[in-house]
């Protein structure tokens, strides 16, 4: 394996930097789900340890306060996962490492309770914890190295020489194993995630324009009334003269027109809520938007297209959510009807008559 491939494996789990960056939202979502699961399990585990330590005088680690602190820490992470991270996915990595540090701190503490015995829990956590989530192997390796360094300093300072020597060699040896396993397993996990993302992308995206396709539109259409709290805005757009352009200049020119319309729709309404639903038709939604902003935005999009030699018809509609209900069918029908009205007006103009093109 050449140096470049090894470096790429270490930095981005074998992907190109652009591929890994594109995958980041999916990684954040996966890590959020895993963090929710493991923080729940961790809270239960530490509460059980706390109860057992209170009931059993002969329990091996009778520091019930430590268990309670760890349990509270897990609940705090769980709270953040449920109520903060859904709107701030960029913070997921921070909480992942906070969770990891909490586990390592606990394992090191348990390992230090018996200064004359070799550590077991710290080694176990060192092997398992880095594999729980998705992240760049380089960052996980830095975490492993930091844990080993802190652990070795503590055991040399506080443990008996015999136990300290054993712990240092075990941590270094299993730390190397952990790094190798982390790099290898993270490459497999992230590549599988990338393949899954690619399959989903191919099934939900219009490959010509880059916006979401009709299949995705139909799958998500009924979700919009639930997504909004006050209103839902719908915009229909249709590329005028696509058939004529295909006949005069070829399909490549027509494809450029469609990409231009899609670009304007994306700039106005974003990737999440923009769809191509037919040959030359696009639909976009805005959840809880400001209807008064629409005329200026549509005018800007229309002028931008005209500057490139293209033209599109737009139809807009707004529905308020009343008593938890929203007239989705009426919203779509009105926006589509307005778009066709504008399209007919476009072709009625003598200079834009199809027969003169």
Written description of the protein model:
- The protein is of the alpha+beta class and about 350 residues long.
- It has two domains: about 5-205, no CATH class; about 215-355, 2-Layer Sandwich (Alpha-Beta Plaits), CATH 3.30.70.270.
- Helix content is about 65%, strand content about 10%.
- Strands 2-3-1-4 form a four-stranded antiparallel β-sheet, with helices on both faces.
- Strand 2 and strand 3 form a beta hairpin.
- The model has no long low-confidence stretch (mean pLDDT about 90).
Mean pLDDT: 90
Number of strands: 4
Main sheet properties: 4 strands, antiparallel
Number of domains: 2
Q: Numbering strands along the chain, what is their spatial order in the largest sheet?
A: 2-3-1-4
User: Approximately what portion of the residues adopt beta-strand conformation?
Assistant: 5-15%
Share of helix, binned: 55-70%
Order of helices and strands: HHHHHHHHHEHHEEHEH
Q: What is the SS-derived class?
A: alpha+beta
For this structure, the quaternary state is: single chain
Number of distinct helices? 13
Unreliable runs, pLDDT <50, ≥5 residues?
none
Which geometry do the CA atoms define?
elongated
Describe the secondary-structure layout.
Elements: H1 3-12, H2 17-55, H3 64-83, H4 92-111, H5 121-128, H6 137-158, H7 161-204, H8 214-220, H9 224-227, E1 231-239, H10 242-249, H11 251-269, E2 274-276, E3 281-287, H12 294-307, E4 312-320, H13 328-348
Antiparallel strand pairs: 1-3, 1-4, 2-3
């Amino acid at each position: 394996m050449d140096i470049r491939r090894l470096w790429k494996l270490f930095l981005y789990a074998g992907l190109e930097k652009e591929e890994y960056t594109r995958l980041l939202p999916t990684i954040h979502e996966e890590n959020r789900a895993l963090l929710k699961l493991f923080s729940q399990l961790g809270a239960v585990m530490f509460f059980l340890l706390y109860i057992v330590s209170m009931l059993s005088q002969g329990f091996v680690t009778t520091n019930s306060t430590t268990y309670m602190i760890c349990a509270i820490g897990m609940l705090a992470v769980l709270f953040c996962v449920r109520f903060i991270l859904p709107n701030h996915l960029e913070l997921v990595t921070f909480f992942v490492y906070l969770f990891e540090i909490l586990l390592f701190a606990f394992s090191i503490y348990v390992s230090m309770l018996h200064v004359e015995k070799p550590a077991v829990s710290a080694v176990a956590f060192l092997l398992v914890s880095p594999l729980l989530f998705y992240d760049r192997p380089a960052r996980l390796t830095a975490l492993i190295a930091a844990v080993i360094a802190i652990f070795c300093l503590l055991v040399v300072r506080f443990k008996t020489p015999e136990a300290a020597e054993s712990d240092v060699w075990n941590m270094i040896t299993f730390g190397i194993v952990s790094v190798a396993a982390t790099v290898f397993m993270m490459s497999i996990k992230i590549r599988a995630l990338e393949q899954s993302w690619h399959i989903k992308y191919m099934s939900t995206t219009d490959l010509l324009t880059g916006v979401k396709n009709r299949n995705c539109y139909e799958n998500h259409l009924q979700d919009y009334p639930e997504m909004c709290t006050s209103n839902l805005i719908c915009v229909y757009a249709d590329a005028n003269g696509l058939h004529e352009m295909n006949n005069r200049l070829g399909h490549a020119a027509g494809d450029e027109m469609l990409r231009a319309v899609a670009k304007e729709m994306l700039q106005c309404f974003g990737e999440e809520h923009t769809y191509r639903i037919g040959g030359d038709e696009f639909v976009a939604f805005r959840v809880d938007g400001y209807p008064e902003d629409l005329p200026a935005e549509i005018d800007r999009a229309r002028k931008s297209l005209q500057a490139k030699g293209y033209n599109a018809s737009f139809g807009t509609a707004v529905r308020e959510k009343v008593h938890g209900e929203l007239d989705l069918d009426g919203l779509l029908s009105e926006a589509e009807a307005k778009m066709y009205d504008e399209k007919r007006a476009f072709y009625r103009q003598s200079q834009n008559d199809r027969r003169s093109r």
